[in-house]
Amino acid sequence: MATIDYKNVPIEEKALYVPPLNEIADVLSRGLQSTFESVDVSVVESPDLTQPPFELTSPGLTGNAKLVEIGGPPYLVPLVRRDKIYDLAELLRFLQRDPALLAGAGAGPWPYIGVNCEGIINVSVRGGEVEQGTRVVSVQPVGAAKGSSSYLQRRLPKNETRSALLGNYLLSDGQSGKVLKVVVKKRVGKSNFITAIRDTLKEHYGDKVVGLGGTFLLRAGRVKHHVMPDFSATPLCSDSDVDNWLHYFEMRAPITHVGTLVTGDLGLDLRVQHFHGYSAHGDGGHYHYDTTPEEVEYEGYFVPAAAVVRIDPPENTHSFGRD
């Protein structure tokens, strides 16, 4: 199936505010205490993220870091736009990024597996060679009723670098370097891990829009994830419609997540946070929140992005289907 020609779609780049890493660490150290009983935020040399349990396709997150948002929920709901297929390796060539890491949350390549699916994007390019670490998660069996379904996680082959419809990715050189390390335990507030980080940054920096990308590990506890079933044949016209369509599951640690967050819209119709997860034991999907606050533990590594690149935004947009 033909993929989008990046020369023929709108692409806009806007700068983000980039505070010093130590300053962000101080802000999060104070702000996250209202959501978690134990908070430890520091600036560290990135561990080798190619190693389990992270298994990224590049060792680090740094080097000309930007956020990339492709498409958007209006290409999925009310009704799907099946023509919105994006080749992510081709995108890196188009943006002239090599070496590069592209990692985050998107819709998987339904033409490859034959059904709508969650994409946990994890692609690197070095010297023109692609390393593919992307997983997809789909509802099983296909067509199963909500409440009686399960899910299947699988890894894409090297030559399958497509995604569909929407995506929120960290784009960097994939280098080792200084990153934010955020470790929290025992949730005492209402927000999930990512919302707590985003709200803390938003409260401190106000109209200065800050964006982070990276990865976090659910070290202990359980989380609520959704997995998209196949495309709806009837229009989904509200958050309630979308909620009734999605399949929800409680999943268990350890689960590695990748994605992005941004504290403002910049007039680009951005999805302000979006993380997907995968695991060695097969659990994975779209992260919502932990369901075991007393025992939950998160360990995250993030970098601030210098800009956000908005690619092929929907002309006719709406605000639902973005949780």
From TrEMBL:
It comes from the Eukaryota. Keywords: Hydrolase, Metal-binding, Nucleus, Zinc. One of its GO terms (molecular function) is zinc ion binding. It is found in: Nucleus. Pfam families: DUF1907. InterPro entries: C11orf54_DUF1907. Residues 27-311 form the DUF1907 domain. SMART domains: DUF1907. The keyword Lyase does not apply. Signal peptide: none annotated. The keyword Nucleotide-binding does not apply. Transmembrane segments: none annotated. GO terms for cellular component: nucleus. Monomer. This is DUF1907 domain-containing protein. It comes from Parnassius mnemosyne (clouded apollo).
